[in-house]
Amino acid sequence: MNRTPRIRPVVSCTLLAVTLAAGATACGGSDHPLAEKPYDAADEISSNVSEGDRKVDPDKPLEVTVDDDGRITDVTAVDAAGRHLAGELDADGKRWHSTAPLAAGTRYTVRVGVEDDDGAPGSRTLSFGTTAAKKFLKVAFGPRAGTYGVGQPITAELSAPVRDRASRATVERALRVRSTPAVTGSWYWVDDKTLHYRPKEYWPARATIEVTSGLAGIRVTDTLHGSPSKALKLTTGDRIEAVTDASTHSMTVKRNGKVINTIPVTTGKPGFATRNGVKVVLGKEYRVRMRGETIGIAEGSSDSYDLQVYYATRVTWSGEYVHAAPWSTGSQGYANVSHGCTGMSTGQAEWFFNTVREGDIVEVVGSQGETMAPFGNGYGDWNLTWAKWLKGSALQKNTAPDRSDTIQAARLRPEV
């Protein structure tokens, strides 16, 4: 026997939001739980912190619970700096607890949403303060505010050592670098108290870079909490790159990818070969006295010298410069006769001095010298591949700094 299907009436709720907003009733009428204003659930919600002026220990987690007749639907905990506290809700909805340390010396506002057995929403807002830290970790950013070349790394100097990986990760997450245009970049732990930040590639020309710390009040170690730090703002100028080929005794200078000068030069002779690799301009000095004994040359030997050098652009702390060398003009463009510096005519040195700024790129190729150390003698950061750079970050999984990247001791004297 054939059965005729029963046709059931269907009531549509598609326009529920519209009709309710207009004051009409639908799908159950005005007593629907979603149409109700949240009731005051202060009597149903409790926590393990004291409200009011009494401060709580930031090392203890925040816990919020609801009585047997309700269920927690949402918890938002925000401190005075606008930082959200991470937390986790139990499967039965009866308890929420923080999963990250509370910040010290701040005040939290906690908003808790619940619903009762009938689905009616309730809420409670509570506020409490945390006790101040006893020992602080301070961060000083560098370089000073200003305009730099596209090779300038950002530095962060800590007031106390941070050694274990978890604590380093806490520090890194709080140190924020924002660039306009945006770039991909990372921090590198040079040592227990020093971090450097650089992009994957050089900074864009005409970029704005802002560096801030969110460490204030955050627990870094069992005894250290972060303190407020002064923000840093930098800009970059044109992309200036000077590349010296020691094998052809020539320097090529580019601005934003276009060659603007080709300069005959002389670099380090055998036994004093100029370092290969990317260096960054550290500063400029109109006149520098350079003496051979400061780099181990005995006074009176054939290599001894004591000179006043002009238009000196420094690229290492140990004394490597690009400078005027009028005594070697006959060798410039033909032979390497210096003690490690890059020498050129006085006119060209003056032009170079007036063209570059701190943070500009000075690279040497084709030399018989060692490669510029990544750290400790200026900014050799760009001599690490991006893969190696990432190994210096505590936020990268299964990585550790390459021991071949250790700091080399710097000789803090000129190498004419």
Query: Number of domains in the coordinates?
Result: 3
Largest sheet: 5 strands, mixed
**What general form does the structure show?**
elongated
Secondary structure tally, helices:
4
Specify the structural class: mainly beta
The residue fraction in helices comes out at under 10%
Low-confidence stretches: 1-30, 401-414
Q: Could you tell me the CATH topology label of the largest domain.
A: L,D-transpeptidase catalytic domain-like
Beta-strand share of residues = 35-45%
Number of strands: 28
Task: Using the coordinates above, name the CATH class of the largest domain.
Answer: Mainly Beta
Question: What assembly state would you assign to the polypeptide chains in this entry?
Answer: single chain
* C-alpha Rg (nearest Å): 32 Å
Q: Strands, helices and their partners?
A:
Blueprint: H1 16-21, E1 39-40, E2 45-47, E3 55-56, E4 63-66, E5 70-79, E6 87-89, E7 95-98, E8 107-116, E9 121-130, E10 136-137, E11 139-142, E12 146-148, E13 154-158, H2 165-174, E14 175-180, E15 185-191, E16 194-199, E17 208-213, E18 225-226, E19 232-236, E20 240-245, E21 250-255, E22 258-264, E23 277-280, E24 283-291, E25 306-314, E26 321-324, E27 342-344, H3 346-355, E28 361-365, H4 386-390
Parallel strand pairs: 1-9, 3-9, 10-18, 12-19, 20-28, 26-27
Antiparallel strand pairs: 2-4, 4-7, 5-8, 6-7, 8-9, 11-13, 13-16, 14-17, 15-16, 17-19, 20-21, 21-22, 23-28, 24-25, 25-26
